[in-house]
Amino acid sequence: AWFIATGTGVAPFFCMLKEYLPRSEKKFRLIFGVRKKEDLFYQEEFQALEKKYP
Predict the structure, then answer these.
(1) Spatial separation of the C-alpha atoms in residues 10 and 42, rounded to whole Å
(2) DSSP states of 6-35 as a string?
(3) pLDDT tens for each residue of 13-25
(4) Domain extent listing, the chain
C-alpha cells in the first residue's frame, strides 16, 4: 500500500502504520512531503518502524 502525506497530515498514517505493521505481511510505502527539513514530524519514530519492519 502507498501512503502520501504532507505536513501534519502524516499523523493518521503514523498511527495506522504502528497498528498494522506488527500484524501484516504487506509492504507499506510512505511519501511524506514537507517544505523544510524541520517540518519532518515523527522522523525518529518512522526510522524505528523501518528498522523493526524492513
Answers:
(1) 9
(2) EGGGGHHHHHHHHHHGGG--S--EEEEE-S
(3) 999 999 999 998 8
(4) 2-52
Kindly state the cell numbers that stand for 7.
505536513
Q: Is the pTM of this model over 0.90?
A: no
Per-residue cell: 23: 500484524
Confidence of residue 54 (pLDDT cuts 50, 70, 90): confident
Dist. CA 9–CA 51, nearest whole Å: 23
How confident is the model at residue 1, as a pLDDT?
87
Residues sharing a CB contact under 8 Å with residue 16, sequence separation 6 or more, in sequence order: 3
Write the DSSP symbol of residue 37.
G
CATH of domain 2-52: 3.40.50.80
